[in-house]
Design goal:
The structure is a single chain. The protein has 6 helices and 19 strands. Strands 5, 6, 7, 8, 9, 10, 11, 12 and 13 form a 9-stranded antiparallel sheet that branches. The protein is of the alpha+beta class. It starts with a helix and ends with a helix. It folds into 2 domains: 164 residues, Glucose Permease (Domain IIA), CATH 2.70.70.10; 99 residues, no CATH class. It is 15% helix and 30% strand.
Length: 336
């Protein structure tokens, strides 16, 4: 049923531009320039000092700090935003409703606290004419929707909580993401490369590559963006990989707007990525390669592994795909 819903959503025609989005909880402190009241802190110990930085609850390389030649950087990528509750009962249990950021279809509901780092979580798919775009709501205390249910912006999905790994009542929060779907055959890829079934099918977190969902919501409210494509084009690229064009056919079918120009007679394709691995742009290439090759790279004096979730290795302007990077590329290109 879930796979049928996904396939049907991919065949639907464009429904116009991305609408104005709404924040997923009542907490709007981020719009009032009070990020410390919006993002949930993380307990941190770095170089002998303990702290509770709210910045570690934001999107990006904000965890596992490391001192490098280019200064202190985060080496662990946080794919979403951790949003604080604004209401709790007398026992400190959060009461905040969690709502859908836009109209969509509920594609997945995990109503078990165990079996996922996300705990209880929900995935809603939005049809904005750009292929499968999903919003994810995790660490819920309760879920209140079913797979296949149509929801509107502001429809309640559940209650904010602290289910999942490494979270207690004090640090209860909503982990919120807006994602691209990397593959329509995730279980096959997972079994081939990791040797076991993953659970959660195509809505496993590994198969959903997050962009900065809170920033996306705010920019949509300010009429600064009207599509995922427009948003991604404003992000910082980190590296590009060239592959034979035939290997990118499934990616092109899923997200054709990534292509900046017709492939035409070009037999090779260059895919440009953010540091976290989000595909941003795809261009035809005259560079001949037999295997995937890094053809553009942001220079960094430290280890590229620290800036790319260990998907490329090297320093400066020299790098190569790691085994993890090769597996990730196979997932994105749909190579089982």
């Amino acid at each position: 049923m879930k796979r049928l819903l996904l396939l049907l959503s991919l065949t639907l025609g464009p429904l116009g531009a991305m609408p104005k989005l709404v924040l997923p909880t009542e907490n709007d402190a981020v719009t009032l320039q009070r990020p410390n009241d919006f993002f949930m802190y993380v307990d941190r110990s770095f170089e002998g000092e303990s702290s509770k930085p709210w910045e570690a609850g934001t999107y990006g390389f904000v965890r596992n700090m490391k001192r490098t030649k280019e200064g202190v950087i985060g080496t662990r990528f946080h794919e979403g935003a951790d949003i604080k509750p604004v209401r709790r009962d007398e026992n400190g249990v959060p009461l905040d409703p969690v709502v859908s950021i836009a109209k969509g279809t509920v594609m997945y509901v995990n109503d078990k606290s165990s079996g996922s780092n996300y705990g209880k979580y929900i995935v809603v798919q939005h049809n904005w004419g750009e292929g499968p775009i999903c919003s994810l709501y995790a660490h819920l205390n309760k879920t209140s929707v079913e797979v296949g249910q149509e929801v509107a912006a502001g429809t309640q999905l559940g209650i904010l909580g602290y289910t999942g790994v490494g979270i207690n009542k004090t640090r209860a929060h909503l982990h919120f993401e807006v994602c691209l779907m990397l593959s329509l055959d995730f279980e096959e890829w997972h079994t081939k490369y990791l040797g076991v079934a993953s659970g959660h099918g195509n809505f496993n977190g590994r198969n959903l590559s997050g962009l900065n969902g809170v920033d996306l919501v705010i920019k949509s409210q300010k009429d600064q963006i009207s599509s995922i494509q427009q948003y991604l084009l404003r992000q910082q690229s980190y590296y590009s990989i060239t592959v034979p064009a035939v290997r990118a056919a499934k990616l092109q079918a899923r997200y054709p707007w990534l292509w900046r120009a017709p492939q035409g007679g070009h037999r090779f394709t260059e895919i440009t990525f953010t540091a976290s691995g989000l595909p941003m742009i795809v261009n035809p290439s005259d560079r001949e390669v037999s295997e995937p090759k890094i053809t553009r790279l942001q220079s960094f004096m430290g280890r590229h592994e620290d800036r790319t979730i260990k998907r490329i290795s090297g320093t400066g302007r020299k790098a190569e795909l790691t085994e993890s990077g090769k597996r990730y590329l196979a997932l994105l290109l749909g190579e089982e």
